[in-house]
């Protein structure tokens, strides 16, 4: 039966989820936790109010509360908030003695807790226990003297009680610990509230403990505010001495200057500003410059304002030359400023500093700007200071410094020579220039020395110098020409002609065409026509240049003789024959054009027609170009000139001319396929 009953027992069916899709609204674990937290914050109904009706219930209530507080303290003695709550509860019951006992017990646990001391003292003050409060404050500032709050509260309590002497004593005890600046200011304000200014005068304890610029300025202004001007000035002077030159501050000098400005001591103000500007770096003196400029505009003259601007620019230049000593342009600007404003000693000092920066590389391009420092230095000593001896020393020092074996500066030698002449010391000038030519001969040196001797009318010396010059540079045609011109001016034409002969006989010349032209012009001026013709013939033996032929022809035309036209025409004919072998056909064309102009002006119809027949025909041709690497670069068109004289000697050119005639005939008679003279092609 039991088994039957067990068999008949039904097995519960497991519920099947019909819809396994996710729900439309999903609930996350975060939402569940947030909702639980929000429900915790829901306001619970307040506990029912307990009404105490007799003393026994009150004692029971007190005992219960005290037991709870003691239990909390016993659990964790270091939690000071439990002690404070306990003491405040006892205080609320007017059990001051018990509260005091609790605070003392708490102080035994943690005597360095600031909040504990403050609550303890406030309780005593609240209950008007003044002596107890003083005792607590004394204990607090003795144990924790660096807690400023205790001192502030203590001094405030004494002041509120009217115990001024006690408050002052608290401040004096406080200042012995050298507290922060605000403590000193509180003490000063306390004394000012009770008009005890005399106790503060001549008291420099604050600036000794906290020697900041702002404290010195406040100290001086305090003295000034109460009418002690001399004391205020003395404070500023002490502050300047205290900081010295290493720790100067522009704000201190600005305050000092404005103090003196209020006292109408304008000269003192000016001295203060200048003293400060001489000692403070430019970057740290912007405000100082600003106030100094404003002061000069208000109380100074034009010179004073200029001094301010000059001082500012001087600072700028000092910074520039310190940053880059070899920046000679900065030195030039600085020196220009110093020369215009400063005394000679200051200018010399700056010049000496500038020339001490010798270029590190001995290359002339690096010395070009540097050498002008010496030139300006010498000119300044000579023209501005008017010290010839020092000027001479500057020139000689510069000439000793230049490495003449590698390069030299002819300008420096010439300036030195001109200076010595201005000093009427001709011997020293010649000696200097002679040394220059001996050490480092240059064209400019020779020219300058010769020019100097010409001005002095020392012609024999000029001849010697020209000889030395030509030994140094025999290829210089200009020198030969100038030498010859000198002899011509002196009337010695034979020497001039000999010089020209020597010149054209030189194996190497830089401008031979100029030399020959000068020689020819010389002979023309001397009216030596045969010599001129001889020169032209000698020149044509050396060169067949077309301009020489044209010049020769024009020369013959310019001579007033009966056969000048025949001579000129003969030269043109000879030139035309000579230029036939010339590759430059443009030159030959130029000659024929010049001949044509001559014939149009002086010739007959026959001669004109003859020259016209000699003129070439302009033909366009093509030639193949080749690149630098040898590859084909295409074709280019160019114009060529075909002279009739050349065409007669070349049958190919004659054939080409006949082909052109045939083409032109067919162009004008397109219907005729053959020409009556078509046999000429065969």
From TrEMBL:
SUPFAM superfamilies membership: TPR-like (SSF48452)
Where does the UniProt annotation locate this protein? Nucleus speckle
Where in the numbering of this chain does the Pre-mRNA-splicing factor Syf1/CRNKL1-like C-terminal HAT-repeats domain appear? Answer: 81-364
* BP GO terms, sorted: spliceosomal complex assembly
- State any GO CC term: nuclear speck
Which keywords does this chain's UniProt record carry? mRNA processing, mRNA splicing, Nucleus, Phosphoprotein, Repeat, Spliceosome
Major localization class: nucleus
Q: What does this protein do?
A: Involved in pre-mRNA splicing process. As a component of the minor spliceosome, involved in the splicing of U12-type introns in pre-mRNAs.
Q: What is this protein called?
A: Crooked neck-like protein 1
Q: Which organism is it from?
A: Oncorhynchus mykiss (Rainbow trout)
Its taxonomic path starts at:
Eukaryota, Metazoa, Chordata, Craniata, Vertebrata
């Amino acid at each position: 039966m039991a088994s039957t009953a067990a068999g008949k027992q039904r097995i519960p069916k497991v519920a099947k989820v019909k819809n396994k899709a996710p729900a439309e609204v999903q609930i996350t674990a975060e939402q569940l936790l947030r909702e639980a937290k929000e429900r915790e914050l829901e306001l619970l109904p307040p506990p029912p109010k307990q009404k105490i009706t007799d003393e026994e219930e009150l004692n029971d209530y007190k005992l219960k509360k005290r037991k709870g507080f003691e239990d909390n303290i016993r659990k964790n003695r270091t939690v000071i908030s439990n002690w404070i709550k306990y003491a405040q509860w006892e205080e609320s019951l007017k059990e001051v003695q018990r509260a005091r006992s609790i605070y003392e017990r708490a102080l035994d646990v943690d005597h360095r807790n600031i909040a504990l001391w403050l609550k303890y003292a406030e309780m005593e003050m609240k209950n008007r226990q003044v002596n107890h409060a003083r005792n607590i404050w004394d204990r607090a500032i003795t144990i924790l003297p660096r807690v400023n709050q205790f001192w502030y509260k203590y001094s405030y309590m004494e002041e509120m009680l009217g115990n001024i002497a006690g408050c002052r004593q608290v401040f004096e005890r406080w200042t012995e610990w050298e507290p922060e600046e605000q403590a000193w200011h509180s003490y000063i304000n306390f004394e000012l509230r009770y008009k005890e200014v005399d106790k503060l005068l001549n008291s420099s304890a604050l600036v000794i403990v906290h020697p900041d610029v702002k404290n010195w300025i406040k100290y001086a202004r305090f003295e000034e505010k109460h009418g002690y001007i001399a004391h205020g000035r003395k404070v500023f002077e002490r502050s300047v001495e205290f900081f010295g030159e290493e720790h100067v501050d522009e704000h201190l000098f600005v305050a000092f200057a404005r103090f003196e400005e209020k006292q109408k001591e304008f000269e003192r103000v000016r001295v203060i500003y200048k003293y400060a500007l001489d000692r403070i770096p430019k970057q740290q003196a912007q405000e100082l410059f600003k106030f100094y400029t404003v002061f000069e505009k208000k109380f100074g003259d034009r010179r004073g304002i200029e001094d301010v601007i000059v001082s500012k620019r001087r600072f700028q230049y000092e910074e520039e030359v310190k940053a880059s000593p070899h920046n000679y342009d900065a030195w030039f600007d600085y020196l220009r400023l110093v020369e215009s404003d400063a005394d000679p000693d200051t200018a010399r000092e700056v010049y000496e500093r500038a020339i001490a920066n010798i270029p590190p590389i001995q290359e002339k391009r690096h010395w070009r700007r540097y050498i002008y420092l010496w030139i300006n230095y010498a000119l300044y000593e000579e023209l501005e200071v008017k010290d010839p001896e020092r000027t001479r020393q500057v020139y000689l020092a510069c000439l000793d410094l230049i490495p003449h074996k590698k390069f030299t500066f002819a300008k420096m030698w010439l300036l030195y020579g001109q200076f010595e002449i201005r000093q009427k010391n001709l011997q020293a000038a010649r000696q200097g220039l002679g040394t220059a030519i001996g050490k480092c001969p240059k064209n400019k040196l020779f020219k300058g020395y010769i020019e100097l001797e010409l001005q002095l009318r020392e012609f024999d010396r000029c001849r010697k110098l020209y000889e030395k010059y030509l030994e140094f540079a025999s290829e210089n045609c200009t020198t030969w020409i100038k030498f010859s011109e000198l002899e011509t001016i002196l009337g010695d034409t034979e020497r001039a002609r000999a010089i020209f002969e020597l010149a054209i006989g030189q194996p190497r010349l830089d401008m031979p065409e100029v030399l020959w032209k000068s020689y020819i012009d010389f002979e023309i001026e001397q009216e030596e026509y045969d010599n001129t013709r001889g020169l032209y013939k000698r020149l044509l033996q050396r060169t067949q240049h077309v301009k020489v032929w044209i010049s020769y022809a024009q020369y013959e035309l310019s001579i007033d003789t009966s056969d000048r036209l025949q001579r000129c025409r003969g030269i043109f004919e000879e030139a035309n024959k000579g230029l036939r072998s010339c590759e430059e056909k443009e030159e030959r064309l130029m000659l024929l054009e010049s001949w044509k102009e001559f014939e149009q002006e002086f010739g007959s119809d026959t001669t004109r027609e003859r020259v016209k027949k000699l003129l070439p025909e302009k033909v366009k041709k093509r030639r193949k170009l080749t690149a630098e690497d040898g590859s084909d670069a295409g074709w280019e068109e160019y114009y060529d000139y075909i002279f009739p004289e050349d065409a007669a000697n070349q049958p190919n050119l004659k054939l080409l001319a006949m082909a052109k005639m045939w083409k032109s005939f067919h162009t004008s008679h397109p219907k005729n396929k053959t020409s009556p003279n078509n046999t000429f092609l065969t």
